[in-house]
Amino acid sequence: MFKRSAKFASVVVLAAGMIPALASAAGEAVDPAGEKLYKSACLACHMAGVAGAPKLGDKAAWAAVTEKGIDAMMEITVNGKGAMPPRGATQADEATLRAAVEYMIAKSK
Description:
single chain; mainly alpha; Cytochrome Bc1 Complex, Chain D, domain 2; 5 helices; 64% helix; 0% strand
């Protein structure tokens, strides 16, 4: 009886650990810090497409950016490009910046 319960508990723990990854891959859930940063800083340009920023929800624009890979996207995010200042003019750490990028990607699929 104990072995069966322990095995079941292990499966439940493993499955629970996979849920955030599966939800994120399906575009259903992202790190809330990314959404918060987007709403406080990124949306100023990414909502309207200011200075060529890919608009949130524009699948074609984001497809062109995402094909370069997340590392290239983070390079732009951290260092800036064109009218976009480094770190989007925020003091956000790289993990939060990455969460914001992932949020925008998820909302633009």
